Amino acid sequence: MHIPEGILNLYICVIMFVVALAFLGWAWIGAKRTMPRSFIPLIAVMSALVLVIQMFEFPVAGGGSTWHIMGGTLVTMILGPYGTTISLTIVLIIQALLGDGGITSFGANVFNMAVISALSFFVVKFLLNGSLSKKRLGASLFIASWLSNVLTALAVGLQIGIYPLVGTLGGVAVTVPTMLFWYVPTGLAEALFTSTIVLSISRACPTMLYGVGLLQKSKSSKTIG
């Protein structure tokens, strides 16, 4: 899913840097306001775990990108939206320094992989609509995880197809279907994995799921109001 160096033109790179910085500011302020300092080690551990998982990736022929497990919605249920944005950005910084993803395309990669993943928290919240039944939570996680994969693939396909540095790479008629071809079906598998793991953790050790805890607090606030 990473966009490598030398793919996007300068204008879209700058725009995506600005967008990414805006969301990072939002995440930093939100994390300082809501997350205790004790979560810093957990953010570091999750960043390391995602970094290892995403080392296993494969090139997408004709897409100008790569395929790998995303794991964004799962991380969001553990860290919440703010912590997830920060954690996945740390992962992307390390990957860019190691040559996986580009420096100039860093803003686009942050938006595509960190921000969209973090926003899946709000998809789960919307779908739950105040309910925290296990069945509804599982279904909401499944939909949010799959949608996160699809939206990330769509964003990458559009960026590479419309704003290439040179040539056309076949345009969006090639890049978008190519990315979706990989991530629509594999997103279903990841969605099943995410919903299963989160529900299992919620039964065994619910205190690990800070993101789910935020959903519970949101439900309590509505009930009190």
Would you kindly provide a written description of the structure presented here, covering whatever features stand out?
With 225 residues, the chain is mainly alpha-helical. The chain has one domain: Arp2/3 complex 21 kDa subunit ARPC3 (Orthogonal Bundle), CATH 1.10.1760. Helices cover 73% and strands 4% of the residues. It is built from 7 helices and 2 strands. The chain has helices spanning 10-34, 40-53, 72-97, 106-128, 134-162, 172-204, 210-224, and strands at 57-60, 65-68. It has a two-stranded antiparallel ribbon. A hairpin with a 4-residue loop joins strand 1 (57-60) and strand 2 (65-68). It is globular, with a radius of gyration of 17 Å.
- The CATH architecture is Orthogonal Bundle
Task: Give helix % range.
Answer: over 70%
Enumerate the spans where pLDDT stays under 50 for 5 or more consecutive residues.
221-225
Radius of gyration: 17 Å
CATH class: Mainly Alpha
Termini separation: 42 Å
Strand content: under 5%
Number of strands: 2
Structural class: mainly alpha
> Element order, helices and strands?
HHEEHHHHH
CATH topology call:
Arp2/3 complex 21 kDa subunit ARPC3
- Number of DSSP helical runs: 7
